[in-house]
Design brief:
about 475 residues; two-stranded antiparallel sheet; 16 helices
Length: about 475
């Protein structure tokens, strides 16, 4: 039976009906890693023997009638996440081999639901680049074109999803790091609302609340399933999102007419005509599906300066030894040094300004249920092309990411939905942004687009 590329929901059905065993599934998963990973470099660490032990334990639970919701389903963890029984390198030579001895809350919840961790996926150093290229791991390659970036910082997770290695892939997003690689690799990624999933036990918040944790998957349903099993605060969290009245998975089958704003370009940024065309086609499709779609957009420019200050401090807050400082990549060291030059009062002012400016954006969404935009201003660039000037990298990034990072500032949920391909055969995504704490609308619209314009049959050449 061909298991590669099946969704977590499909695999759960096969496992429950005993058409496949957890051991067979894990064996097939690692066989696929062995076959495909050398070409794409998506994994930082593999958990082969322990995952097989977990699969044998899952088999016993199926036999005993004690199977849990995600029993036997493979998943990956981003290298930035704490893992109890493996390394958390944070994509950095400065923390290579670091073992924290505890699972991040999101990892613990996936394991508690029965999912089996197969390993950790590559990330840029501290997640501070929108590509997955690091001195520790090298470049993670896009499965649609091995000379192109996979995006970042959760590039390994997106590649694992695109190649059908694991249906559930943990990722994180402080400025687009779920949506960027998912768009580059032609899969689905949703940045949940701020505080939707705890960052505990080791973090209260990260990057001043910019950073959140969430899924990259091949299907919208799997992303909703991931949220259902991981959402919620932990004791001591500084804030939390109000729980939805119904499951996230139920939103996938719901259909309601929404009022949607659509925007193609913003603040004079240059957007590739092919990316604009995909947004136009998606807007037309949503109108045909019964939604009201109007050209409009909030003013996002005032969010930029506070974002830069808060995200810079988010990296500079790390407590590093002199040896670790010497091991940092040059661009990271520039950011780290800049952070150390900032005063505490600058950070507090930026944080206050960030939240005040977000109120203006929130007011825009009182009139609209969702906003449709390009995810990125152009498809995946060649590896090594973007951000080459370590002192002026933001000038490269700000255009490419002009639609992703603003919604880390506001804390709103946002997803990238596969929308087709460029003339060069590279995936293009469109972004759906929801109101504060309203992942259900984002999931509902995403699922409508998935049904109307299925993307699963389009698989990378390396699949």
């Amino acid at each position: 039976m061909e298991l590669a590329g099946l969704s977590a929901l499909e695999l759960a059905s096969l496992l429950a009906s005993r058409h496949v065993s957890p051991v067979e599934l894990i064996d097939a998963t690692f066989a696929r890693v062995d076959k495909l990973n050398p070409a794409v470099n998506a994994f930082a660490w593999l958990r082969h023997d322990a995952a097989l032990e977990d699969a044998r334990a899952a088999e016993k639970r199926f036999v005993g009638g004690d199977a849990r919701p995600l029993e036997g389903i493979p998943f990956t963890a981003k290298d930035l996440a704490a893992i109890a029984d493996g390394p958390t390198n944070q994509g950095s030579r400065a923390f290579e081999g670091q073992r924290l001895g505890v699972d991040a809350g999101v990892i613990a919840r996936l394991r508690a639901a029965g999912a089996i961790l197969i390993g950790s996926t590559t990330a840029s150093e501290f997640g501070n680049r929108p590509t997955t290229e690091s001195a520790l791991f090298g470049a993670t390659r896009n499965p649609w074109n091995l000379e192109r970036t996979s995006g970042g910082s959760s590039g390994g997770a997106a590649v694992a999803a695109a190649l059908g290695i694991a249906p559930l892939n943990h990722a994180s997003d402080g400025g687009g790091s779920i949506r960027i690689p998912a768009a580059c690799c032609g899969v689905y990624g949703i940045k949940p609302a701020r505080a939707r999933i705890t960052l505990g036990p080791l973090l209260g918040e990260d990057w001043g609340g910019l950073d959140v944790t969430g899924p990259i998957t091949r299907t919208v349903g799997d992303a909703a399933l991931f949220l259902d099993e991981t959402a919620g605060p932990a004791p001591g969290d500084p804030y939390w999102a109000a729980p939805p009245l119904k499951s996230f998975l139920s939103a996938v089958d719901e259909r309601a007419p929404f009022t949607i704003a659509v925007a193609y370009e913003r603040d004079g940024e240059t957007v590739d005509p092919e990316c604009i065309a995909k947004v136009e086609a998606t807007a037309a499709l949503l109108r045909a599906l019964g939604h009201t779609v109007t050209e409009a957009q909030p003013d996002l420019l005032p969010l930029e300066q506070p974002y830069l200050v808060v995200s810079t401090i988010g990296i500079g807050v790390l407590d590093l030894t002199a040896r670790q400082l010497d091991l940092l990549e040059p661009r990271t060291r520039v950011i780290f040094d800049a952070a150390r030059e900032m005063k505490a009062v600058e950070y507090v002012r930026a944080l206050n300004d960030m939240h005040l400016q977000a109120r203006t954006v929130a007011a825009f969404f009182e009139e609209y249920d969702a906003l449709l935009t390009p995810t990125l201003s152009r498809p995946a660039p060649p590896i090594g092309e973007i951000g080459k000037d370590i002192h002026g990298a933001w000038n490269d990034y700000r255009n490419w990411l002009c639609w992703t990072w603003p919604f880390n500032v506001t804390g709103q949920p946002a997803a990238t939905v596969p929308a087709g391909f460029s003339s060069e055969g590279l995936p293009i995504g469109v972004q759906v942004v929801g109101r504060a704490a309203d992942e259900r609308t984002v999931l509902s619209l995403s699922a409508e687009l998935e049904r109307a314009r299925p993307w699963l049959d389009r698989r990378p050449p390396t699949f």
